[in-house]
Design a protein that fits this description.
Largest sheet of chain B: 4 strands, antiparallel
Strand content of chain A: 25-35%
CATH topology of chain B: Jelly Rolls
Largest sheet of chain A: 5 strands, antiparallel
Strand order of the largest sheet of chain B: 2-6-4-5
Oligomer: heterodimer
Radius of gyration of chain B: 18 Å
Structural class of chain B: alpha+beta
Number of domains of chain B: 1
Strand content of chain B: 15-25%
Shape of chain B: globular
Number of strands of chain B: 12
Order of helices and strands of chain A: EEEHEEH
Distance between the termini of chain A: 41 Å
Helix content of chain A: 25-40%
Number of helices of chain A: 2
Number of domains of chain A: 1
Number of helices of chain B: 9
Shape of chain A: globular
Helix content of chain B: 25-40%
Number of strands of chain A: 5
CATH architecture of chain B: Sandwich
Structural class of chain A: alpha+beta
Chain lengths: 78, 258
């Protein structure tokens, strides 16, 4: 199974050295969404939300396969 | 390179981690220790992520972790997994099954592990030895106490506190069976397993671990974990080891402080 690495860019850059084995890019996208939303939940629990923070997903070759800004991970309604 | 210390052995060369664990709280007579060792002779090596037993199974054996780690878990219909306990050397997977009869959850190895397969009947015979039965009861009660602490951890702590609490707990438990010292130990868990234990995502766990590194609370590299500032990690995670009941002496049913 291919491995994907989920790097977090919020206040700092956090590399994922371990990665996750996932069947395909679609699964990596779902994992990125749930990961971003988990971080978003933590921010909201503290009373703030940085829509500009993002995840970047790389494959085993180091190629960036997905950039997910937090703002794209949720739908905000007013 | 791992910097974790080599495991300590009991002075009398005892290598059964369940005996080591029980002896920290109970004065077991030699016959009881011999009887316990005798039922653990069927020791099998399992690869990583292998099911030891599955939900719904009616097992023939009680499984005792001799080396490596295992995890209790439930899988939800959508495929997501909740780990409900980590089992380290000296932990029995399913001591209770001799009474309940059927597994209500599954247990799998984390990495490679050595598991003693104890026939049900042999375990039942052991429980007719009063001091051993009492010691087993203590161990089961501690498992229950750990589960309560996990409910609090998953229910009321934020990700940072919950990960810190888990690290403190695992260190204390490993130290109690001689597999950790000087605030260093081998943590064989993936970020995914930590996440599944705490109801988080692996991405979030990675972020929390990095925060802890940046605060000089821990180092963690390829499974070798060192807690750099134990007092601060305890404080930050709200960890109190009382629920592990370490160093309580249990004598014939009346617990005393040692």
């Amino acid at each position: 199974m291919p491995r994907f690495f989920f790097h977090v860019y919020d206040d700092i850059a956090v590399r994922d050295e371990e990665g996750l084995d996932l069947p395909d890019l679609a699964a990596a996208r779902r994992a990125a969404l749930s990961g971003a939303r988990s971080l978003i939940c933590a921010q909201v629990s503290s009373g703030h939300l940085h829509l500009g923070h993002r995840l970047e997903v790389e494959d085993e070759a180091g190629a960036c396969v997905l950039v997910l800004p937090f703002g794209d991970a949720i739908e905000i309604m007013r | 390179m791992s910097q974790a210390p080599a495991p300590r052995r009991e002075r009398d060369g005892e290598r059964n981690p369940l005996v080591a664990k029980l002896q920290t709280v109970a004065d077991l007579p030699d016959e009881d220790i011999a009887a316990l060792n005798a039922v653990c002779i069927d020791a099998r090596e399992l690869g990583g992520r292998r099911n030891i037993i599955r939900e719904g199974d009616r097992p023939e054996f009680v499984h005792l972790i001799l080396d490596g780690w295992a995890a209790r878990y439930k899988v939800l219909p959508d495929g997501s997994r909740q780990i409900t306990a980590f089992l380290i050397p000296g932990d029995c997977c399913d001591m209770h099954v001799t009474i309940l009869g059927e597994m209500d959850h599954s247990i799998a190895t984390v990495g490679r592990a050595t598991v003693a397969y104890i026939p049900r009947r042999d375990m039942e015979a052991l429980t007719r030895r009063p001091k051993l039965a009492c010691a087993f009861w203590w161990a089961t009660l501690v498992d229950e106490a750990v589960l309560r602490a996990w409910v609090v951890n998953v229910g009321r702590r934020d990700a940072y506190e919950a990960v810190g609490h888990l690290i403190c707990e695992l260190y204390a438990r490993m130290e109690n069976v001689g597999l950790a010292a000087d605030h260093r130990f081998e943590l064989p868990l993936t970020q995914e397993e930590i996440a599944d234990a705490l109801g988080l995502t692996p991405v979030h766990v990675n972020r929390v671990l990095q925060r802890m590194r940046s605060e000089d609370l821990i180092t963690l590299k390829r499974g070798a974990l060192e807690i750099l500032d134990y007092r601060q990690l305890e404080k930050a995670s709200g960890f109190n080891a009382n629920y592990l009941h370490i160093e309580e002496r249990v004598r014939a049913g009346s617990p005393e402080r040692s």
